[in-house]
Structure formats: structure tokens, C-alpha cells
Specification:
By secondary structure, this protein is an alpha/beta fold. The protein has 18 helices and 15 strands.
Length: 410
């Protein structure tokens, strides 16, 4: 069914978010008649989420734009267990203090995308530790355990992936799908939540929660998943050679965030404009058909809009200005990454590593050997070269797209 009547499903469908629905007709009818509270869960394994989580954040934003209530569920409880979905090995165990600090840091991201408050369509953030930490384990097993069979749990991709690759899956992680299903039951009771959204890898967990709530409380809930977001060349969204594209500015500078979007492949521009910006669909239709060098203008629109949404209009303008100075005018823009050099000189290898362009000296040597390392736009051919750092900033480049400044520490 694609002829949706509700603003919610029309918006999600038109912008490319819908992969699977548990009951399209039922959800469409409910969303046409009343405000639907819907949730997505995010585990707090790091101080920031990365671009791989952005489509989920945008789905909550779309819910609010369509007049419904987003519920952000932080996994203060489930992070102590670890979601095995898509993982080859167990996650590092975090302390309760680390998890709380991560949640506080992640909250800042959502403040940029959602409006929080006490109104009927205002977003709320909830920590599932509020109920999971209070569970009496034996009582929980007696009440919830009979609704799950090991036979069925072994068929889920998150379990099969580990077993097929002969990677250990701990009993702790095996419990994760039960806890996530229980989250939906609790949210239904506590917050009248009727919809869980997530990536396609969460389909089984979402269905578990719907079935558990139906069996115990007799309530009808709904599930919706997005397609796996990959780039045109089949790569995973948000993964780059230099690492994860973090959403917090203190883990990835707004300029680097802007540059990530500016480097979008031509074939992905239209799709990413729909998913990750609020730009009108008619304007996106105009931008996505641009050809040749003109498509670069569409990429800049994408970079400006995505950066403004995450980091504010000023950060987006500064990043665009820096990029223009660096790439189009040949100058060193003021928003480039900076490494302060303590001594009067630094080796080219140490400079490339310390500014974050190379992960190791070996990688830096290969960069130099391949002709990709430049100082003030002049190629460096000698891997033993030393760079004098005195008064003025020195521009250092790795390849065509990574630029930074070396500055003498005061």
C-alpha cells in the first residue's frame, strides 16, 4: 500500500524512509485520527551518535513535523547488555557512570533536531534503565520468559550471524531481544506508545515487542523499519577511511561534517537531500537532475542544510566559507583543523598523523610516496622531510580533500 491517507505515512513514504510495516492500513488509519506516540531506542556506547544513526533521528523529526509525538529512548539499561544485531563480537562493558555521561552528551544532539517539552507533540527522552534496573530477575523470567522460545530466537539474524561465523554470543547478549521487546510493553503502559521505528536489522526485535504486548495486555501496536542506508557504491552510510562521522561537534568539527556531505557521490545526492534535510521535494527534484559540474552546487546545498540542522546556521556558513577559500580561492580557510606544534619544526610524517589525516606513520609514508602530501600546496616527495613552523600558519594537505593548519604553539 502506498496511497496513504495520513500525513505521517505520506511524509515518510515520499522521502524514502519506509521499508517494512507490520500493519500499514491500521497505522495509517490510527495516524489519521489521533496523535501517535512513537519511539526509537539508542544505546549509549559512546559520547556521541554518528551519521549511521541519523536516519533514525530524522524519522523522529518527521514524526513531529507530521503532528505526532517522538519518544527518544536512551538505553541506559540495554547498553549494559549490548545489542548483538550486526555485530561480530561482544561490546566492551561500560560502567553506569560512563553510560550516564554518554547519555548527557548525546542529549545535545537531539536538541538540534527535535522540540522537547510537555505538549502533546513535544518530544520526550526516556531512559530504559528506569524500569530495567528495577526488574526482579526471577519474577521477570516467570512473567516474560514464557512468551519467547529458544527455537525462534535462534532464527534471528543477530544470533545467526554470530553462530554462523563461530563467534561467541554471550547469554547476556542473548537476553537483549527480550529486554527490547519488554521496552515496547513498558512504553505502551507508561507513555501510551503505539509505534516503534528502527532500521531493517531491528525488524525481529520490533515484532517481538508487538507480539509480547498483544499477548500480555491485548493492545495493538505498530512497527516500521527503514531500508539499510548504503551509498551508491554499496558502502555503509557514515563510514569513511578516517573513521566514524560523529554528530557531536566536540568529536567531529562542523567543517569536517560539512565536508562529509559535500563529498557525497553524485548518485546519492537526491536521496540524501530527501532523507537528511527539510528542503522541499520540488526543489530536491530540481537539484537531483543536475549534471556534470552543476551537481556540485546540489552537494553544497546538501552540506549547508545538513550542517545547519546539526550544528546551527553559523557553523554551516563558516564551513562553507572555509571550503570556498580552501578549494576555490587557494587560501587556507579559518575553520580548518589545526595542530599546534610545540617545537620549531615537525616531520611530515608526524604532522600527517597528529593532525588526523593518517592513522600511522606507515600510512603517512605511503601518502608521501604516492604524492598526496603537500605543504602550502607544494608536494612533499621525501618522507624524512622536516617542516619549519615559525610565525604564520602552514597549510598541510593530504590528497585533494583533507586540509589543515600547522601552527606554532604559544
Amino acid at each position: 500500500m502506498t496511497n496513504y491517507q495520513s500525513d505521517l505515512l505520506r511524509l515518510l513514504n515520499d522521502r524514502g524512509y519506509i521499508h517494512q510495516l507490520t500493519d500499514a492500513d491500521g497505522l495509517d488509519a490510527a495516524a489519521s485520527e489521533t496523535i501517535i506516540p512513537g519511539y526509537i531506542g539508542f544505546d549509549a556506547t559512546a559520547p556521541s551518535l554518528h551519521v549511521g544513526s541519523l536516519v533514525q533521528i530524522m524519522m523522529l523529526r518527521r514524526m513531529q513535523q507530521a503532528g505526532h509525538k517522538p519518544i527518544v529512548v536512551m538505553g541506559g539499561g540495554t547498553t549494559k547488555v549490548g545489542d548483538p544485531s550486526g555485530k561480530d563480537e561482544s561490546r566492551k562493558m561500560l560502567s553506569a557512570e560512563d553510560i550516564d555521561q554518554n547519555i548527557a552528551s548525546i542529549r545535545r544532539i537531539f536538541d538540534s533536531f527535535l522540540t522537547f517539552g510537555d505538549g502533546p507533540t513535544d518530544a520526550v527522552m526516556i531512559n530504559n534503565a528506569d524500569w530495567l534496573d528495577a526488574l526482579q530477575y526471577v519474577d521477570f523470567l516467570r512473567d516474560i520468559g514464557p512468551h519467547f522460545t529458544i527455537n525462534r530466537m535462534l532464527t534471528f539474524d543477530s544470533v545467526k550471524l554470530r553462530l554462523d561465523r563461530e563467534q561467541p554470543l554471550t547469554f547476556l547478549e542473548f537476553n537483549y531481544m527480550i529486554l527490547q521487546a519488554y521496552d515496547f510493553l513498558e512504553l505502551s503502559r507508561r507513555n501510551a506508545c503505539r509505534l516503534q521505528l528502527g532500521g531493517s536489522d531491528q525488524w525481529g526485535n520490533i515484532v517481538n515487542g508487538i507480539e509480547l504486548t498483544r499477548r500480555i495486555d491485548g493492545k495493538q501496536l505498530f512497527g516500521l523499519t527503514t531500508p539499510l542506508i548504503t551509498t551508491a557504491d554499496g558502502g555503509k552510510m557514515g563510514k569513511t577511511a578516517s573513521g566514524a562521522v560523529w554528530l557531536n561537534a566536540d568529536q567531529l568539527a562542523p567543517y569536517d561534517y560539512w565536508q562529509f556531505w559535500r563529498n557525497t557521490q553524485d548518485a546519492d545526492v537526491g536521496r540524501f537531500l530527501k532523507l537528511f534535510t527539510d528542503i522541499d521535494l520540488d526543489e530536491i527534484g530540481r537539484l537531483e537532475v543536475l549534471q556534470g559540474s552543476e551537481i556540485n552546487e546540489a552537494k553544497k546545498v546538501l552540506a549547508d542544510a545538513a550542517t545547519a540542522m546539526a550544528h546551527g546556521e553559523n557553523a554551516a556558513r563558516d564551513a562553507a566559507s572555509t571550503a570556498q577559500q580552501t578549494f576555490e580561492q587557494g587560501n587556507a580557510g579559518g575553520d580548518l583543523p589545526v595542530f599546534e606544534v610545540a617545537d620549531s619544526e615537525i616531520s611530515i610524517l608526524n604532522a600527517l598523523v597528529n593532525i588526523g589525516f593518517c592513522a600511522s606513520k606507515g600510512e603517512a609514508k605511503r601518502m608521501v610516496a604516492g604524492g598526496g602530501a603537500r605543504i602550502d600546496d607544494e608536494p612533499i616527495k621525501d618522507a624524512s622531510a622536516m617542516i619549519a613552523v615559525a610565525g604564520d600558519d602552514i597549510k598541510i594537505s593530504a590528497g585533494k580533500k583533507k586540509h589543515g593548519l600547522l601552527r606554532r604553539a604559544v
